[in-house]
Amino acid sequence: MERAHGFRWFPLSAILLGLLALSWTAAAANSVLVGWSEVGLHETDGTDFSVYSLMPPYSTIRAQFISGGLLLTNPAGITVTYQAVADASGSINRTSQAKGNLYQNAEALYGKALQPDAGLAGFAMPGLSNQPQPMVFDSARKCFSATGIPLTPYDDQGKKNFFPLMRLVARDNVGNVLATTDLAVPVSDEMDCRACHASGSQVDARPPEGWAWEVDPIRDYKLTFSAVMMITFWARRRSPGPWRLRDIIPPGWWPRWFRTANQSLAWGATATGALPGSGSAARAPSRS
Q: Which residues pair with 43 in a beta bridge?
């Protein structure tokens, strides 16, 4: 409708929507999302979890939202999510499925059955559909956090990529994007003992009853390494003085060990935040 003096009347709803759009645009223009990985590089056990686990996939990311130069301390009306994003070479890491046998062995190792792409602390990978995953607000740190994402160093094409990218997105309570940022979440499988403990490697590291000679190189060194450690542990418990391995190892034990490959968790080794209660007080905790 147009009045005689030439002005046009606009519906109140259109005016309010316009003001809201201007307000959102201003908020987005003055907002920044800062994200980081909690550790410089998270080590993992690689692809095999059938024997023992020292470092499960457990990447933690954090983010702070800053608007108008002020750090967000009350998350009311603001959400932050994470999802995978391709790097310049096209490498993308959306899922932890089909990248090892973690999920087949999780319950035996950690006492917790995990659904595909789920992590030990409840935060998941985005999955092949790249579904944005919510972060939670940590009031003590004044940041959003996602703890223990089961990120592996293998992209969705099966290629190694130690620096996969994640995209963080901050939104308001109606879904408008306020800020985004991409960050590398470094992860590696280079915590590897095969130089000394692979079958046929160092003579001094050879178990008394022989090498494992497993086809899978990771399972191979884990079997020989854990066998030597268990033999040493048992020997020292049985006799504090001089002893011979063959005096304390039950007949036929070694073949049974290789056949059953009993799964064990290194609770007495180095503590890790991924496994509450793990580690020894005599050893400094791992930062991974």
A: 188
Per-residue confidence of the chain (288 residues) as pLDDT tens digits? 444 444 444 455 554 445 444 444 545 568 999 999 998 899 998 899 888 888 889 999 999 999 999 999 999 999 999 999 999 999 999 999 999 999 998 888 888 899 999 999 999 999 999 999 999 999 999 999 999 999 999 999 999 999 999 999 999 999 999 999 999 999 999 988 889 999 999 888 888 778 889 899 998 898 888 877 776 665 555 555 544 444 444 555 444 444 444 445 444 445 566 666 655 555 455 555
- Asked if residue 195 lies in contact with residue 201, where contact means CB atoms within 8 angstroms, the answer is yes
Listed by start position, the domains of the chain span 29-188, 194-265
CA dist list (Å): 17 to 1, 21, 118, 287: 19, 6, 40, 49
Cα 126 to chain centroid, rounded: 12
> Would you say 178 and 92 are in contact if contact means Cβ atoms under 8 Å apart?
no
Tell me the CATH architecture of domain 29-188. Sandwich (2.60)
